[in-house]
Amino acid sequence: GDFPSVSSAPPPRGRKDPTLVAMAGENAQHFVPEKLPWQVLRNITRVLQVCWFWSGLMALLKEVHVYQVDFQQHPGGERRLCSAEGLVFQEVDVAWPHGAFFRPQGLFCPRRRGLFVASPFAL
Predict the structure, then answer these.
(1) Which of 28, 33, 56, 72 has the most crowded Cβ, counting Cβ within 10 A?
(2) Closest to 107 in 3D by CA, of 85, 90, 82
(3) Rounded-to-integer distance, Cα 70 and Cα 106, Å
(4) Are 17 and 33 in contact (CB under 8 A)?
(5) Residues 6+ apart with CB under 8 A from 85
(6) 112, 117, 120, 123: CA torsion to nearest 10
(7) What is the pLDDT of residues 45-66, one digit of tens each?
(8) What is the pLDDT of residues 31-41, one digit of tens each?
């Protein structure tokens, strides 16, 4: 009959496929639906790679003592420490918990009770 011929051949050069234009809009020549899931997967993988790289870089900088983030919240702004006059220090042979991995971060000196060393995990 009078049916228009249906062709599976691509439209001639310079003409846009009306179905593709309806789906993709003005950028129809760059739109390939079969590649879209792989592009999304590739982009998400790149974001995760950047996150892992950043985390590794921060861990490395912390281990070499170049950069360390202080996550402690100090109420009232900056910490105010008490000072003591005339401190005399002497070396003491001590076995630290976790050996070489122990990182002292503070001292606590209650009156007449000795000296306590603070770490990120306990006093």
Answers:
(1) 28
(2) 82
(3) 13
(4) no
(5) none
(6) -30
(7) 999 999 999 999 999 998 888 8
(8) 666 777 888 89
- Cβ(17)–Cβ(11) under 8 Å? yes
Determine the residue type at 29: Q
The amino acid sitting at 103 is R
Paired tokens of 23 = 């789906």
Angstrom distance (rounded) from CA 106 to CA 118 = 5
pTM to 2 decimal places: 0.37
> What's the CA gap between 109 and 115, in Å, rounded?
5
For residue 88, which of 115, 119, 117 has the smallest C-alpha distance?
A: 115
> What is the spatial distance between Cα 83 and Cα 114, in angstroms, rounded to a whole number?
16
Residue 67 DSSP class = -
Residue 113 pLDDT > 90: no
Q: Are 56 and 48 within 8 A, CB to CB?
A: no
**How many residues does the structure list for the chain?**
123
